[in-house]
Design brief:
The protein contains 16 helices and 19 strands. The chain is of the alpha+beta class. The strands form five sheets. A six-stranded antiparallel sheet has the order 12-14-13-18-19-17. A five-stranded antiparallel sheet has the order 5-6-10-8-9. The chain has a four-stranded mixed sheet with strand order 1-2-4-3, with helices on both faces. Strand 18 and strand 19 (412-421) form a beta hairpin. The longest helix is centred in the C-terminal third of the chain and has 20 residues, at 426-445. It is globular, with a radius of gyration of 23 Å. The relative contact order is 0.12. The model has no long low-confidence stretch (mean pLDDT 95).
């Protein structure tokens, strides 16, 4: 855009959100122009901070009139994946100022939040009400809860993960047409307040009718609509809560044990880390992390057992006994501590957002994540494949991190490799980028499903399923016919 056109654009934007809610500060624009992930820099023209849904609608209507590219964002820096970096020119719609907890409902274990509510804030407010937030693994304290759930980041309690949309329930969406739409039981009849007076709690994500419209926006990186609030499923805060460890040299033994535990839904938190990724969580700086990693077993399974309001000790006791019996028959040993942490410390770590610096940045400063969906039984094979790719690039084998998170009650799992590097070391950074570039296609050929295709993964993911691309473009043509929302992402 020319300088004159940009100036006119800013006047139009200020007319919607007010001068104080618009910024073209060069430093701020630079933060939105890049992420810690791969991909080219964008060209944000301005950052606007709408105060409510009406202003979001007005921004979308303005964008339609002048062909503007709106890029929704709600989490604080640093940004990790590149989903909120404009593809070319764009205006960033920063929703972090819409940070109300609209309603906390303990009886129905549900909360309604705006996109600016972070994990750090929601955790504290939920605990005051005796409730527990279903969190991913150590999110940043400034991470938007809504953004995390929209992007389907896996939660660490698989038995409460029934469907890929969990724990997100009903939503309010501004589509690219400017239309306001509510999904699930929140669709009506009546306003939210009228529904509350009638005893409704916005817990059923299906609707209107039997259509699950939230699936249109979930995982869409803001290309289909802007979510202005959502109801979120919570759980009761445990009265008794203990964490245990199983350390093994064999990943296969942990996989076999995992299937046997999750089938009867015995444990709460349940995840597998290799020695390096576990040490990055436990350590505070590079030297300590290296020392801890040298003392860990190659793989550690962490699980928690919890008792709630009724007979909490008995609930925990029967789970502990059943899990101990399964462990014995599976040939694995349960422990109460690992180098660097006991069960009590790990329980606190998993229950909170990551302290600063973010846990993946503590070891080398930079990182690349390669993550996808698969099934637990295939994880040993895919790990071996990734280790082969790392070896071909002469990258130290011990510098590869691993995180396996069962989801959907163990039906499938999120598998994530961590490639740590020093950003100031050009050679090391190039080596990691080469591994990252090769790993995606190779893993995809082996059956890894890249359900969250950021940046360079998009073409790789969508070229395999042209009929899905056609269907998605048809839906995009309905809800955002002029292409004003996060243009250039996914297959758009």
């Amino acid at each position: 855009m020319s300088t004159k056109t940009v100036s006119e654009l800013k006047k139009s934007l200020a007319g919607v959100v007010g001068k104080e809610a618009l910024s073209d500060d060069a430093k701020l624009l630079g933060e939105y122009a890049r992420s810690l992930g791969p991909g080219p820099e964008g060209k944000p023209l301005a950052v606007v901070r709408p105060a409510d849904t009406a202003q979001v609608q007005a921004l979308v209507n303005l964008a339609q009139g002048i062909g503007l590219n709106l890029v929704p964002a709600s989490s604080g820096a640093p940004r990790l994946r590149g989903g909120t970096v404009p593809a070319g020119e764009g205006v960033v719609v920063d929703l972090s100022g819409m940070d109300k907890i609209v309603r906390m409902d303990r009886r129905n274990k549900v909360v309604i939040i705006e996109p600016g509510v972070t994990f750090g804030v929601l955790k504290n407010e939920a605990e005051r009400a005796g409730l527990k937030v279903l969190m991913p693994l150590l999110p940043r304290a400034g991470k938007s809860v809504l953004a995390s759930y929209l992007e389907r980041e896996p939660i660490i309690i698989p038995k409460y993960h029934w469907d890929m949309t969990d724990p997100m329930l009903c939503t309010e969406i501004v589509f690219g047409t400017g239309d306001l739409f509510r999904t699930g039981s929140a669709a009506g009849p009546g306003s939210l307040e009228e529904q509350w007076r009638a005893g409704a709690a916005q817990k059923n994500p299906m609707g209107p009718a039997q259509t699950d419209f939230v699936r249109i926006v979930q995982g869409a990186q803001g290309t289909m609509g802007i979510v202005t609030w959502s109801s979120i499923k919570l759980e009761i805060l445990p009265r008794v809560h203990r964490c245990y460890f199983i350390q093994e040299r064999s990943l296969q033994k942990l996989v076999d044990f995992s299937y046997r535990i999750m089938r009867p839904k015995l444990a709460d938190e349940f995840l597998i880390l290799n020695s390096l990724s576990l040490s990055c969580i436990l350590g505070e700086e590079a030297g300590q992390i290296s020392a801890l990693a040298a003392r860990q077993s190659p793989f550690t399974l962490i699980y928690g057992v919890a008792g709630y309001e009724y007979l909490p000790e008995k609930r925990v006791a029967y789970q502990e006994e059943d899990i101990a019996n399964i462990a014995q028959s599976s040939g694995v040993d349960i422990g109460r501590e690992v180098p660097g942490a006991n069960g009590r410390k790990m329980k606190e770590i998993l229950a909170n957002p990551s302290p600063e610096p973010y846990w993946k940045q503590r070891y080398r400063g930079g990182f690349r994540d390669v993550f996808f969906l698969t099934t637990l039984d295939r994880t040993p094979f895919l790990l071996e494949l990734m280790q082969g790719i790392v070896a071909r690039h002469d990258h130290p084998a011990q510098e590869l991190g691993l995180y396996i998170q069962p989801i959907q009650q163990g039906r499938s799992c999120h598998m994530e490799f961590h490639l740590f590097f020093d950003p100031s070391d050009e050679g090391e950074a190039k080596r990691v980028e080469a591994i990252f570039s090769e790993a995606g296609p190779e893993l995809a050929k082996a059956g890894a499903f890249f359900s969250r295709p950021y940046g360079p993964w998009a073409e790789m993911a969508y070229e395999r399923c042209p009929d899905s691309v056609e269907a998605m473009r048809m839906v995009k043509g309905i809800v955002d016919p002029k292409g004003v929302l996060n243009r250039g992402k996914l297959c758009f």
